[in-house]
Amino acid sequence: MKIGGRVGFDKIEDLERVFRSVDFPFELALPWKYRELWLPLEERTEEIIDFFRGRKLDILSIHATQGRITEESFLVWGEKTVEIALALGVKSVTVHPNEVKDNRDWHQKQALRMIKRFGGEVTISIETFGSAKRVFTPADLVDQKTPMTLDTAHLPDREEVIKIIRAHHRHIRTVHLSSIGREEHHLPIDDFCVRVVEELKNLGWGGNVILEYLPWHNYRLRDDIRALEGYVAREGSLKTALVDDKYKNQPDRYGFNPDGSF
Predict the structure, then answer these.
(1) How buried is 4 (Cβ within 10 angstroms: 0-12 exposed, 13-18 middle, 19+ buried)?
(2) Mean per-residue pLDDT for 230-247?
(3) Domain residues for 207?
């Protein structure tokens, strides 16, 4: 099991600023808005590859843009994403299951057909979302033994998360780990998150655990990764820290250092 944090960027011009202080394993999150952010650089992926090739960074997985995996455009942006993964030696890519209005069975077959066309060197796993409007629900992924990215913050029923792990762990490639508050998701790890890691550890699971926090909590990523690494490496307990929103309204402090800087 490897532990890392989510680190993303929106524009190529952001790369130097965002990654200059990253010294921990991470999931590379590509620009998330498909039309506004991804399409303007879809033909510039070599620049992204060149940036990371020149640096000694530990990239555990890649999170693709939020395009629609049920449409032919997936063959373009999916292939570009796989090319980035192959060039950087990354074996796992996460995609989102988009919403569909009807004919879910047909759309599922369409998405899986296109995924198969990318070959087997990189595994494309589908992230869990609770809404029945999504082309794949968590239950669909389990029933069809489809590679999964399990996101604990998208599933408020904690026992459902544990059941998925026990039933489907051989097909889970990545876990997006964070806690849920009364009004917000993707908060820093809590005791339930530690239980998730313990379940995975006991099952001998060997995938990537990615801490995925709201940006004003990114200053905690480094310490929380180290704490979980220590917990996995030895027996004992892990005391989680209280959530502190001190940087919530300060976008200039959404970085990865203790003071929120980049």
Answers:
(1) buried
(2) 89
(3) 2-253
